[in-house]
Amino acid sequence: MKKRTEKAHVKILIVDDHLLTREMVRMILRGLGFNTLLLAENAYEARAQLKLGGVDLVICDWNMPKLTGLELLQEVRASKRFRELPFLMLTAEAYRESLKEALKAGVTDYIAKPFTAEVLQEKLEKALGFDAL
Question: How far apart are CA 41 and CA 2, in angstroms?
Answer without folding.
Answer: 27
